[in-house]
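ZP: hey, is the copper (II) ion complex queued? I don't see it on the tracker
AM: it wasn't, my bad. submitting now with these inputs:
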Amino acid sequence: MLSFITLAVAFATIISTTTAHYTFPNLLYKGVQYPDYTYIRRTWNYQNYYPLFDITSPVLQCFTSGSFPNPGTLTVSAGDTVGFTVSGRIVHEGPLLFYMAKAGFRQTAASISGAGNVWVKINETKPVVTDVPTRLELYQWPHYNASEVHIQIPPCLPTGDYLLRVEHIALHIAFEEGQHEFFGACAQLKVVNGGNGVMTPLTSFPGAYSSDEPGLLVDIHRNWTLPEEYQVPGPEVWRCGV
Ligand SMILES: *[C@@H]1O[C@H](CO)[C@@H](O)[C@H](O)[C@H]1NC(C)=O
Ligand SMILES: *[C@@H]1O[C@H](CO)[C@@H](O)[C@H](O)[C@H]1NC(C)=O
Ligand SMILES: *[C@@H]1O[C@H](CO)[C@@H](O)[C@H](O)[C@H]1NC(C)=O
Ligand SMILES: [Cu+2]
């Protein structure tokens, strides 16, 4: 009996470690939810859901380990909205970010790794600050507890092949340097009906972040006086028509 209880407790611990984290397995487009990793590169943590802590790792490019073949590439129109399901829900607090990288001459979405100075940030979220019921509730993060997340492909994005990178950064223990948790994935897209926007500024992974910047070394619980001034890591968001 004792050993049964010990086993049950150990099992429960494993379950809670897994369910406390999250992955982005399915692409959503025009009402269709595609099977796991059909158009999304299978991530290094697809089974254990582990967070990535190392911001100097190339794994940060697309959260892949390189041991699986790349998936298919979905054709979408510029200006359309695509989404990712969240397996396990976004159960930590922090910003949600989206980046895109364009495949160059003679490259495709499937052939590029995401290495180099190729990424432009297309969206980011900050805490939504309210006074009800208290200023420091979890719901200040717009995607807290989300089971899917959505992003509009910029209407002015040039036609071409792209990686679309979703990233959620968990900050619940980021009061200690290096304790930021990264979750994310890359979808492979062929964007048609594009515009003539000029993607800027470009950044790289690793390289975009440093572990002591204010958006990654922050105590969001005990002594966070100015959530409205939270500085999302990485470059400025690129906006069409600016
Ligand atoms: C970012 O996404 C939000 C919805 O989550 C949207 O309201 C906002 O306009 C987007 N920003 C840009 C630059 O597209
Ligand atoms: C998360 O969302 C689910 C489904 O809407 C809801 O049942 C649950 O209470 C929410 N959890 C939190 C912590 O908000
Ligand atoms: C809280 O933050 C303020 C401003 O950053 C700082 O001066 C103060 O020492 C901090 N207090 C604690 C208890 O960490
Ligand atoms: Cu965690």
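AM: back. Helices lie at 2-19.
ZP: great, adding it to the tracker
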